[in-house]
């Protein structure tokens, strides 16, 4: 784990937005860490279209390590890289997300020469929203609340994973103590120049790669919300516990911003001596899938489903982490 403070910084930086189709909230907290290395980007209309059925939204979370520069750069540039790609303009969103991740990675090395930092990246592209595309590199994570049940929209990239390990070794690296070259606890990231120096290999086959895995979900109308968060949350709660926490908060009429702030408080360790869990920077975001409803109607819809136990039986309370 990283260095920690004597007391946590619990100030929360929170924001929200909405349009006819989606409502989002995001909050981040430094916690016990000596600096804040997370970043995010929340965009309801990537192209500036006025028609709600033509909008493309993009939501992304970046968890930095070894400094904050890579995460800040990715938050400022990933969406611009994406919107400018021919693959994006042609409607090939799967390819476009891959291209955007790799371009952002390359641009970071070109424009921020010598910076050693890196970051995870998990980005959700919602097309009007008929489909949800989630691209992931690293161990931040996205989960869909589908009729109250948690559907993973990404899977963590850890050095111990069979396929990840094979790429690392083939590129000349090794895994020790569950870390790339005994150092990095994740195996895909933007930045991390020291693991991408083999000029004979493609960007996708380096020891650490920014090449994202992409999951596509066809919207059916049962979707309630989408979550994107960094591992400061997932180290403490399972996918289903997170969906339960959010769903119960919605049923209680809490603002999305309040839910984001409360889940981080729920995950904050009471002290920094318990092995790192609950001591990381935290970023949590939730995107409400309004499905043709107003925000108020959406709240009532989710509340009714929770109370009548339609779909997943959401518990009254989420067990404490500590």
TrEMBL record:
Its EC number is 3.1.3.16. Residues 23-289 form the PPM-type phosphatase domain. It catalyses: O-phospho-L-threonyl-[protein] + H2O = L-threonyl-[protein] + phosphate. Its cofactor is Mn(2+); Mg(2+). The keyword Manganese applies. Gene3D superfamilies: PPM-type phosphatase domain. Keywords: Hydrolase, Manganese, Metal-binding, Protein phosphatase. Pfam families: PP2C. One of its GO terms (molecular function) is protein serine/threonine phosphatase activity. Belongs to the PP2C family. This is protein-serine/threonine phosphatase.
């Amino acid at each position: 784990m990283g260095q920690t403070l004597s007391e946590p910084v619990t100030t929360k930086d929170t924001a929200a937005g909405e349009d006819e189709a989606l409502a989002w909230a995001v909050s981040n907290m430094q916690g016990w860490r000596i600096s804040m290395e997370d970043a995010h980007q929340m965009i309801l209309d990537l192209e500036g279209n006025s028609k709600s059925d033509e909008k493309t939204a993009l939501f992304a979370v970046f968890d930095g390590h070894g400094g904050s520069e890579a995460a800040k750069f990715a938050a400022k540039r990933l969406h611009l890289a994406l919107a400018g790609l021919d693959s994006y303009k042609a409607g090939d969103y799967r390819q476009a997300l891959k291209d955007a991740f790799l371009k952002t990675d390359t641009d970071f090395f070109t424009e921020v020469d010598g910076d050693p930092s890196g970051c995870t990246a998990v980005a959700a592209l919602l097309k009007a929203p008929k489909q949800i595309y989630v691209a992931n590199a690293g161990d931040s994570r996205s989960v869909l609340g589908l009729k109250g049940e948690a559907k993973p929209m990404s899977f963590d990239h850890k050095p111990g994973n069979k396929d990840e390990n094979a790429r690392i070794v083939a590129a000349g690296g090794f895994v020790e103590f569950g870390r790339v070259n005994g150092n990095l606890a994740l195996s895909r990231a933007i930045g991390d120049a020291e693991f991408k120096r083999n000029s004979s290999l493609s960007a996708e086959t380096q020891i650490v790669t920014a090449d994202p895995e992409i999951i596509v979900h066809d919207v059916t109308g049962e979707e309630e919300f989408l979550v994107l968060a960094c591992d400061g949350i997932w180290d403490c709660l399972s996918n289903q516990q997170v969906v339960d926490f959010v769903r119960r908060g919605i049923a209680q009429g809490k603002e999305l911003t309040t839910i984001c702030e409360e889940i981080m408080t729920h995950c904050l360790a009471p002290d920094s001596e318990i092995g790192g869990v609950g001591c990381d920077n935290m970023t949590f975001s939730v995107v409400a899938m309004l499905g043709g409803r107003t925000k108020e109607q959406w709240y009532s819809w989710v509340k009714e489903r929770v109370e009548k136990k339609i779909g997943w039986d959401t518990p009254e309370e989420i067990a404490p982490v500590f």
